[in-house]
């Protein structure tokens, strides 16, 4: 284990040495003298507006004192051999950031595996320097001096002397400043924890299991059905009464209840399957169990590397009773003693400690603590600000809280003059009673169907036993009679001779023989033995009868008790077990959670009161034990502690001493986004571990280059290349590893071996079935179950669940990224035009609640936001960004801006893995719309985009019409045509003007349309063919499968004209090319669009006509495209 700990420590130290790629819009140049003095002299208003947000007075920046370049223009590349993190104020002052350490990109430090660049130093020298020098708090002069010394120590030359590396040459003497923040400081606390782990002599069972377990089997090994039902008795709580757990969520809770210290469960949670609800249920159950057992509350921590994931979790623990209770009071249990509680249920749901507004405590860094978004959140602390806990544990607050608690308790329970301890005792009594009812309902339901059979069987057994007893009694009576007859016979046959000793025995033996002969007995002794044996049999049968009678009575009482419980909790006797569990989630388990809440509030008040009596308030933590006790007290009020994995080592250490094995349950959310070197250290602090995530959604952001990682593996773990390759496939690697992958393999239980192991949440409730089916087939082997059901009327007048809009745009490079201005402009204009309709459709107040835009490229995000601003949308009114922007979120409508145009020949970014489209599509509840050049899509193969294309192009009804109207048409050789009549007229005009050939691309073909509305057009095509004109008609058979007969019959009509029909496997835009002189491109389906005037898009369909010189280059590329995509 030590080797891999050293490997992770080294990886983290080197991860902060990653490259930073500045962009022009967030950069400025300063002189070397300004760098040395720490004052930027020419910081004008334009630069300040560009770099600083409205409320920012100070920003994090990187300084690049050496700027190298290779190539120029589009092929230009930059290299920055020294990167200096700092902060910059609006006044132009440069400052050192606490623990901020300058670095040299790891790719430039040996050892590196197969690097193309020359190295300029040794990584060991760099690490030796920073470990032997303090970067905690420095003046600017001290910082620049130390930076100079660092560079010279590692690179053996001065900063100003480095002028080239390989083919990169120095291009500027100035210093480049770029706005951005380093995560290196946060990672240092994890590095320190790794240091402590290597020095720790005690047991770390969880960490050892995670790193040392060599068993990689993921064969299914779930608990038996009987055992799983047994585990339901230990599922004690739900935090909300709105919904019960799904079957797969319940399966996870059951298996979690078997977890021992050092054990792990990995749970794959695809989008919309209720990961947060699951986490809340597990935490609630542990909290309630501790209350019932009257033990200290468990320390439960939920963490991730993703800030948005952590924010989503902490928000889910916030208390909001503004809308009233969602508990169905019709299902409130029939306890006369709780009449007052039922009457005051809204009060019962509130917290009885003032100012407490959450079930989670947020642990954050100093900067996050001060963010405006957290201003209203009370339950939060940072490493240097524990004001929340200090206020809670003050004498003033204690007295206020005691009065507040008792006032709420007495009103809720209709009691007077109670003490906190009396209240706690009463609450605990109800915890015991409700948990007993829960246990019995589960137990009795399991037995309920056997009651009649068991009673009937017992009656039969009792009858058999009674008969046996009667028969046996008869035998005993007969044997007793025989014994009496012997005694009489013996007495009568005796005389005075029997007093002579030597004759007595002989005479008695003769009498026995005679009596036995007369009664056909073998001996008198056998008679006595038979009598004793029959007596024993009678006693045994009587005991068995008594035992059966007791069991019979118990079963009858149990049945009676079950009927009482059914009545008490308003349950139907014929209910299924799944329904029973769901009902228990929304009733008893929720009530148990509320009772536990107030139990812990009372316990907290008692513990603080005891500290006050010992004059320990205000509380000043002076020892690690006192620090741990504060966490335990905190867990009485907030059962969940939430923070990033960078903060967990900070808060669960005291004076740099980690609290190993202190956290009872560590849960990582979005574990599929976590690189293992960041998370593994925290496992040393915990006893049990639950990883929730999905390796098929967003991947980790790896800060380690593969070449560097390979060098580290070969140096620190193994010198064998094959072993190195095997290690990189385990999920433990720092350059391609995944916490979720490791947790799945290490999981105590497995459900589907072919889905990488662990357990699996399968019920999806967010998206319409048409949407989630795509994700299900793409990433989850069909194991997801679409649970959202809507009536057919729901779809009326709504956007297609899976749709597309064709946009004629051009992809361009912008700030090391890609953008498509026409596509962005079209999307924004469409949103603007559809805004009122969408708000009405979804009954929302702001368009940002309805729609979001996802794109693969950051540059496109910027362009779209600029276009939104031009049309008057507020900043951030609509979420626009890469898939990370919608982390854990959902919108009714999601637009996917592809950016690519048909001229691009490489692999699309969203086709490199299933991750991007899986995330993007699954964010859309009602409609996922692909906006872009539809020519980029192929219907062949199994790539993510090909699978998407097969769905969105399966029906003409999936098309978004009229987007061409947003194209800005100049006065030159470009014009626009709109509506059905204009398109028909223009097609006839083009056919008439054709001199040599015309290419008509109509992916869809409709027999009804051609037969009833296009006879004139068909005759014209036939006439031109006879005249010797070449007319090529292109269709796509694969997207006409849902209307195959109409397509094939329509195709025959076209063939009868003499035109040449060509099948395509790809192109989906509807275009016409005439003699290489004119190009028409748009959304109009030439041979399938309805010509009826009540057709919804009769006047919407739009096409753009390019002709003359403007069209020549476009035509050549489109013809080449058609040739490539002809079906072979």
UniProtKB/TrEMBL annotation:
Domain PLD phosphodiesterase: 1063-1090
Keywords tagged on the record: Coiled coil
GO MF terms held by the record: catalytic activity
Pfam families per the UniProt record, alphabetical: AAA_12 (PF13087)
Coiled-coil region(s): 448-475
Cross-referenced InterPro entries: DNA2/NAM7-like, DNA2/NAM7-like_C, P-loop_NTPase, PLipase_D/transphosphatidylase, SF1_C_Upf1
CDD domains: SF1_C_Upf1 (cd18808)
GO biological process per UniProt: phosphorus metabolic process
PANTHER family: DNA2/NAM7 HELICASE FAMILY, SUPERFAMILY I DNA HELICASES
Name this protein carries in UniProt: PLD phosphodiesterase domain-containing protein
Species of provenance: Enterococcus moraviensis ATCC BAA-383
